[in-house]
Amino acid sequence: MSETLLTQEPWVRLAVFVSILAAMALWEVVAARRPQRVSRWQRWPSNLLIVVVDTLAVRLIFPLAAVGAALVSADKGWGVFNLIAAPGWLAMLVSVVVLDAAIYFQHRLFHAIPWLWRLHRMHHADLEFDVTTGLRFHPLEILLSMGIKVAVVALLGAPALAVLLFEILLNGTSLFNHGNVRLPAGLDRWLRLVVVTPEMHRVHHSIIRHETDSNFGFNLPWWDRLFGTYRDQPAAGHLGMTIGIEDFRDVRELRLDRMLLQPFRNPVPRTQRRS
């Protein structure tokens, strides 16, 4: 069972990932929410290639990843659910919810701590907001995130199937809530009670700092409401808001090499930039 899960896990995740990515890309063509001034050809190659870099980095440093950590924890008897008797369904449900809460607080830390923000700001430096923005994370951030996830899995003793389900949900909802897609207002209002929607998460990518520091959830929307970081709409509206951050607004910064070096560079002040 353990060997089968470890063998099949990458292929299951890849199949779901490709399916959702293709579906969201098609949805963006059919019903785009915002017009895009920076073309896909300028953004998509690097945004897609960074996924390859991130995946290779994780497999090199964490060859068993989060699902493997769950299997090892079960074998060693580590973690809460390996020490107490609990129904399988309860362990699954609690594990998914706790892991999602951990990602929410991790996200807030990456905004609050300057050196962590240097890693995370690459995600926010995208000049447009669409499905590939949900893939755009620096490999060092991905490695730190995986380390945190492995620690939470081990402490919790999360079942391997729950971890796999969470990983699939997290990847899928990240693609969904970064989509440049149009949803009926009534449907969005109901959906954001149970999942982070594109309308909700787009606020988080506003150039205005207090809007950037809101709506941190990726999967479940409850944490933002519970901990006071929920913002319903951007001040300028979804069509009027500016996507990105003040730093790195030159289209050359969309190149993969410059994206990878962003955490180690200081942006040029606007007064020193060429007009």
Present the secondary structure layout.
Blueprint: H1 2-30, H2 40-61, H3 65-76, H4 88-112, H5 114-124, H6 139-156, H7 160-177, H8 185-191, H9 198-202, H10 209-212, H11 222-226, H12 256-261
How do you describe this structure in short?
This is Sterol desaturase/sphingolipid hydroxylase, fatty acid hydroxylase superfamily. Helix content is 59%, strand content 0%.
What does this structure look like?
The chain is mainly alpha-helical and about 280 residues long. The protein has one domain (about 1-265). Helices cover about 60% and strands about 0% of the residues. The protein has twelve helices and no strands. The chain has helices at about 1-30, 40-60, 65-75, 90-110, 115-125, 140-155, 160-175, 185-190, 200, 210, 220-225, 255-260. α2 packs across α6 (about 140-155), α3 (about 65-75) packs antiparallel against α7 and α4 packs across α7 (about 160-175). The protein starts with a helix and ends in a 14-residue tail after the last helix. The model is unreliable at about 270-275 (pLDDT under 50).
Give descriptors for this structure.
membrane; 59% helix; oxidoreductase activity; 275 residues; globular; transmembrane helix; disordered C terminus; mainly alpha; Sterol_Desaturase_Related
**Number of H/I helices:** 12
Give the terminus-to-terminus CA distance.
61 Å
Q: How is the main sheet built?
A: none
Structural class, by secondary structure, is mainly alpha
Low-pLDDT residue spans: 269-275
Percent in strands: under 5%
**How many extended strands?**
0
